[in-house]
Specification:
Layout: H1 3-12, H2 16-27, H3 40-52, E1 56-58, E2 61-65, E3 68-73, E4 76-79, E5 82-89, H4 98-108, E6 115-120, H5 126-133, E7 140-143
Parallel strand pairs: 5-6, 6-7
Antiparallel strand pairs: 1-4, 2-3, 4-5
Helix pairs in contact: 1-3, 2-3
């Protein structure tokens, strides 16, 4: 079983209460006690939460072009006609503008109706929050853990 399959198998066992318990471990920086690779518990928790709410989820994947990985997507959520590219950041420092710029470039290669959401356990810097307000035509939403 690949690491991705193992992650999906582990997260799919969790219901709402299990996700809340896992969130507590993520906030405390203790997911290593459950043998989750760094950042992966948060990434999979987000997707599982949307899946429990009946959204269709595409789990993390890589995009290959001519034998090279050109993108790593943390997941996609399909719900009520929306197509949402997910980026997750399980960091202790607030997220700066770089992931927003990266996601913007990923969205430019997608249909114009696609949007992006960056989930950050620790929040965002003020420049990152300001940049996200001025992106056009794509929309990037920020979720900061609060």
């Amino acid at each position: 079983m690949s690491a991705e399959e193992d992650n999906r198998h582990r997260i799919n066992k969790l219901d709402y209460d299990g996700l809340l318990e896992l969130w507590g471990l993520i906030e405390a920086g203790q997911t290593g006690t459950l043998d989750w690779e760094e950042g992966k518990a948060f990434e999979y928790l987000i997707l599982r939460a949307f899946e429990l709410e009946k959204a269709e989820v595409r789990w993390p994947f890589s995009v290959d072009m001519q034998g090279s990985v050109v993108e790593q997507i943390d997941g996609i959520i399909y719900s009520d006609g929306l197509s949402v590219i997910v980026e997750s950041k399980d960091l202790t420092d607030r997220v700066n503008i770089e992931p927003i710029a990266k996601l913007r470039n990923q969205l430019l290669r997608r249909p114009s109706g696609s949007i992006g959401i960056i989930f950050s356990k620790s929040g965002f810097t003020e420049p990152a929050r300001m940049l996200a307000q001025y992106l056009a035509p794509q929309t990037i939403l920020l979720w900061g853990g609060d």
